[in-house]
Predict the structure.
Amino acid sequence: MAETKSAKGAKPSASAKTTSTTKSGKIRIGIGGWTYAPWRGTFYPDDLTQSRELEYASRHLTSIEINGTFYGLQKPASYEKWYQETPEDFVFSLKAPRYATNRKVLADASETIERFFASGLLLLKQKLGPINWQFAPTKKFDGEDFEAFLKLLPASIEGVKLRHAIEVRNDSFRTPEFIALARKHKVAVVLAGDSAYPQIADVTAPFVYARIMGTTDKQAKGYSAKALDAWAARARELAAGTTPGDLETCGEAPAKAAARDVYLYVISGFKERNPAAAMALIERL
């Protein structure tokens, strides 16, 4: 990987490292995207050029969820640039294209899915993390249709193993049938925290994908110290293979506990505070 100069104020620190132990998976904490005007002067230094914002963010966080891929295909050159600008152990998750999930018949999404995976995302190499397939709140659970969709998701491409997460936002998915289906296909169900969307904290894959959405302008770090402590503790439990008792599940527990990687993103809420909340969680971990 070609080296890049660190952005001003972006010197890597011990707090911005991936957490891992012999008894738990890795915990990565991040935000959604990196281009947001209100972060300039709050998260980003005033004199930092916009072209170096990813470089800066990636040295204070351990992962970022790319949102642009939800709205359209990105160019191979973009993936290559993102790879070059970030540290060796940094990881991106990608929101899959809405054209694959916002449709009446999910089984018809094959062409969109194939185009997405042929668009250059493998240029992220080892920095390619989970793919988040987000569904509209109006999309209801239909077991046959949903399984047809899950069968379209490739387990690997060109020898690269893929991780898929399914973000469902309708109460009809709160059923053991859906949990069993997700577990059968080894896809993670996105855990919605502090959100109006239904919480489904069942572990269905070898990793956990969480999106917490409760930051507010009343807290300097988005969340209170107590709330940050609670989410850090939950992340540790999930990484160790257990499900925190204060999270909502709707299916049978896994047959046995096993260490899992955890990807936790501070999303939505009072967005201006999201980087501060993510860094506060990294410090606690």
The chain is about 25% helix and 20% strand. The two ends are 28 Å apart (CA to CA).
